[in-house]
């Protein structure tokens, strides 16, 4: 059985977590995942969580070069091993995810607009990709069958939604799922699974929400 590779969207880019196993096999599995999803990874900034792996400069340098050849910037290596941490720091890589600095008090502004945390992905999510984020998720592109989105808040797809989507994953029944073409393999809001109706006629933008004990989909007008 091949080692597992998990991909998660974070504030700084992508967090790739490797499962247990021997390093050569883990590295090979990671490279295969990237080669199968070239468009998804191209131009990405990656933080790599290697768990308990003990890695030295030769191994990390080789990996960084391999990722660079694919247009991927390795900026951080997370590890439980002091040796690996020291190696990463020697190579100029971060060993911790950034934490937002405390914001300075902003001048008072007369407005009624509120904003919330979200991640924006400008690419098609292909089969085998799982995108997970504690806030809202916005995808400019298609979500193909076999791809999965898990969001703590809303999910907005400016394209065709064919994969699996779970909005309000932490129990928020107010979360919604919007797409220009809403035809998911499975759609969930909080702990509730929707039954996707059979497509009739030309696809129209739709929004799915929890109403009166049911998940319903209705016409979505993004301009309103």
Strand content: 25-35%
CATH architectural group of the largest domain: 3 Solenoid
Instruction: Indicate the multimeric state.
Output: single chain
Report Rg: 20 Å
What does this structure look like?
This protein has a 6-stranded mixed β-sheet with strand order 5-7-9-11-14-15, with no helix packed on it. Strands 6-8-10-12-13 form a 5-stranded mixed β-sheet, with no helix packed on it. It folds into 2 domains: 5-90, Cell-division inhibitor MinC, N-terminal domain (Transcription Regulator spoIIAA); 118-219, Pectate Lyase C-like (3 Solenoid), CATH 2.160.20.70. Helices cover 18% and strands 33% of the residues. With 224 residues, it is of the alpha/beta class. The model has no long low-confidence stretch (mean pLDDT 84). The radius of gyration is 20 Å and the shape is elongated. The protein is built from 4 helices and 15 strands. It has helices at 23-36, 38-41, 57-69, 82-90, and strands at residues 5-10, 13-18, 45-49, 73-78, 118-121, 130-133, 136-139, 148-151, 155-161, 164-167, 177-182, 186-189, 192-194, 206-211, 214-219.
Write the layout of secondary structure elements.
Elements: E1 5-10, E2 13-18, H1 23-36, H2 38-41, E3 45-49, H3 57-69, E4 73-78, H4 82-90, E5 118-121, E6 130-133, E7 136-139, E8 148-151, E9 155-161, E10 164-167, E11 177-182, E12 186-189, E13 192-194, E14 206-211, E15 214-219
Parallel strand pairs: 2-3, 3-4, 5-7, 6-8, 7-9, 8-10, 9-11, 10-12
Antiparallel strand pairs: 1-2, 11-14, 12-13, 14-15
């Amino acid at each position: 059985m091949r080692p597992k590779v998990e991909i998660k969207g974070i504030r700084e880019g992508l967090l790739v977590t490797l499962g247990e196993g021997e390093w050569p096999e883990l590295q090979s599995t990671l490279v295969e995942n990237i080669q199968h999803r070239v468009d998804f990874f191209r131009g990405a900034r990656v933080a790599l969580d290697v768990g308990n792996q003990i890695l030295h400069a030769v191994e990390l340098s080789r990996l960084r070069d391999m990722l660079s050849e694919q247009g991927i910037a390795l900026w951080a290596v997370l590890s439980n091993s002091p040796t690996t941490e020291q190696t990463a720091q020697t190579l100029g890589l971060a060993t911790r995810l950034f934490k937002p600095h405390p914001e300075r008090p902003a001048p008072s502004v007369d407005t009624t607009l509120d904003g919330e945390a979200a991640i924006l992905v400008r690419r098609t999510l292909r089969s085998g990709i799982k995108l997970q984020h504690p806030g809202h998720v916005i995808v400019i592109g298609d979500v193909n069958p076999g791809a999965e989105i898990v969001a703590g808040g809303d999910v907005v797809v400016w394209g065709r939604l064919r994969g699996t989507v779970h909005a309000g994953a932490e129990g928020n029944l107010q979360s919604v799922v919007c797409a220009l073409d809403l035809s998911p393999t499975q759609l969930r809001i909080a702990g509730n699974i929707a039954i996707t109706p059979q497509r009739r006629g030309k696809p129209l933008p739709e929004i799915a929400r929890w109403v009166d004990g049911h998940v319903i989909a209705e016409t979505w007008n993004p301009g309103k």
